[in-house]
Amino acid sequence: MKVYVPLDSAAVALGADRIAEAIVAEGAARGVAVQVVRNGSRGMVWLEPLVEVVTEAGRVGFGPLTLADVPGLFGDLAAHPKALGLVEELPWMKGQTRLTFARVGVIDPLSLEDYRAHGGLVGLDRAKGMTKAEIVAEVTESGLRGRGGAGFPTGIKWKTVSEAAGEQKYIVCNADEGDSATFADRMLMEGDPFTLIEGMAIAGLACGATKGYVYIRSEYPVAIRVMEAAVRIARNAGVLGPQFDMEIRVGAGAYVCGEETSLLNSLEGKRGVVRAKPPLPALQGFMGRPTVVNNVISLASVPVIMARGAAFYKDFGLGRSRGTIPLQIAGNVRFGGLYECAFGLTLGQIVNEIGGGTASGRPVKAVQVGGPLGAWFPPSLFDTPFGYEEFGAKDGLIGHAGLTIADDTTDMLQMARFAMEFCAIESCGKCTPCRIGSTRGVETIDRLARGDASAMPILTDLCNTMKLGSLCALGGFTPYPVMSAITHFPDDFARAKEAAE
Amino acid sequence: MLDSHAQNGPMADRIAEILDAHQGLEGPLLPILHAIQAAFGHVPDAAVPQIAKALMLSKAEVHGVISFYHDFRSAPAGRHVLKLCRAEACQTMGADAVAERIKRALGIDWHETTPDGRVTLEPVFCLGLCACGPAAMVDGRLVGRVDESVCAEVAK
């Protein structure tokens, strides 16, 4: 009997480790030989822990599983109260276009044999037969843009590093996924770590870099463990070696280190303070040397691009947003999780059709797209198609494609205040608009909360200063959640005034 | 000399081992600090001059790095560390109310330790469990859909 039990953090947080132990114990008690494979998550978090039993028809899912449901896995599977049917046939799975996440949840994350059997290393093998310029051209042609949030064309960044002079160059993977509502990096690293390793090795070939670092936040213990094991396995198998090798580094709880220059300082062992640009990290990055800094999903999308060609990838998407995007549907939502599809679904389709509305059953009030620095969207903007430019045109951003859904009990003034408070806690202190502006922002919103309407023009002006005067996106984008809350939910700010009067 | 107790004795020996083990790394300070905290539960002030000397940094530079990052402690935490997520996705699932109830039950605020040294309560901004919030971490173990019953896990 072969059973899959996810090792994914979300599954573990909902009891997967205990379920795995119970399945082994139940098998032993019944004298049944059980092979438990700890896989990644399929992304259906509301069904976790989602256990899969291999049958002749395919992998049958059961979830959300409790300890009491374990003995039933050894009986008539069709009669099991938590039986979901064939996992691949579930609507959530069938609706997706899984390119970057094709193997996540399917394979044993630490089996290089599984990885190869499911198309792994095909992209790297192809890249080995190409020149640096050809690899860079392929990635550029695919239209892949930085999935960390900035949306900068990945191929252009690689070209700069590839053509830069320097004996030692680096590939740095930004796995400091600190934005609330985002967990795609974590799921990819936990569920299919070799994809990231392969993507970084291809980047190394394209840029002439022989050394890579993955900077993972300390809040992700499972991802750290899986990535460290995967690097050792890849090294022993010769996938990594003198031509390109890599190390896993662990952050220390600073949100701002998700900003690339701050991350580089942290990696060098310094305070995670933002650097002014120029110089670009592509020319003077880690240790002052030419460095590619890419997000996990950007790098993990490269193997499929190299394996199936730029045209295949580019064929998905809309406008200047090409390929697929792993949506992370989170917060107060009925069906939360990861859903990879081509760009172009409307926000309303994502929230209401895929996400199924709120978990509380109450009306959706607002959706924050792109993490703590993203704008809050009201239902009146639900016709916005999911794309970089499309969200920019509505004074928002897609960021790392995380969506926080909030129901009608949410006080948007408090959410605006939290955005400023978070910025104050996490500011690196380098630039004044962010360091001081965020604290003044909290105070000014508190004035509004007390009904002092004269604070509104001050807050608007402050947001403008932060937006235009900050060195990085922390201070520069904190105005997005604040101003969008004011623009789209004026009642929540007026109510405070009425209460005061 | 203020530093003498760090330069001699078992603590200094252990730190010297850690420093040795990290030789050859590019940018070794964060891995060293993580290793010291794993060994002692915090980064002792007495370790600062020893690290500074080994890495050819000033004591101020090392102190500056330790104090920049939320993870590094200058004093030991309680026997248990309870981290509760305060970020937006968890807020939409009632994280603030859960946190208030847990604070009342423990009788402490953020960043405080119960007087008996049993538990330290800390905020965390995102554990990547945003579709099963509110999220928590108890002594390194992840917990989804957390409520005040988590206090039982840190009772002893």
Q: What's this model, at a glance?
A:
The complex is a heterodimer of chains A (501) and B (156). Chain A has 501 residues and is α/β, with parallel strands linked by helices.
From the structure above, extract its key features:
A: 501 residues, alpha/beta, Glutaredoxin, Ubiquitin-like (UB roll), five-stranded mixed β-sheet, 22 helices, B: 156 residues, 7 helices, 4 strands, 41% helix
Describe the protein in words.
The complex is a heterodimer of chains A (501) and B (156). Chain A has 501 residues and is α/β, with parallel strands linked by helices. Chain A has four domains: 2-90, Glutaredoxin; 112-314, Rossmann fold (3-Layer(aba) Sandwich); 317-407, Ubiquitin-like (UB roll) (Roll); 412-500, Up-down Bundle (de novo design (two linked rop proteins)). Chain A contains 22 helices and 16 strands. Chain A has helices spanning 9-13, 16-30, 91-94, 112-117, 122-128, 132-142, 154-163, 184-191, 193-207, 221-236, 260-267, 296-308, 310-314, 347-354, 388-392, 412-426, 432-435, 437-449, 455-469, 473-477, 479-488, 490-500; strands at residues 2-4, 35-37, 51-55, 58-62, 83-86, 170-175, 211-216, 245-250, 291-295, 317-318, 321-322, 324-331, 337-342, 364-369, 376-377, 402-407. In chain A, helix 5 (122-128) packs across helix 12 and helix 18 packs antiparallel against helix 19 (455-469). Chain A is globular, with a radius of gyration of 23 Å. The N and C termini of chain A lie far apart (69 Å). The model of chain A has no long low-confidence stretch (mean pLDDT 97). Chain B has 156 residues and is an alpha+beta fold. Chain B has two domains: 4-68; 80-154, Glutaredoxin, CATH 3.40.30. Chain B is built from seven helices and four strands, in the order H-H-H-H-H-E-H-H-E-E-E. Mean pLDDT of chain B is 94; it is low at 1-5. Classes of the chains: A alpha/beta (501), B alpha+beta (156). At the A-B interface, helix 1, strand 8, strand 12, strand 16 and helix 16 of A face helix 3, helix 5 and helix 6 of B.
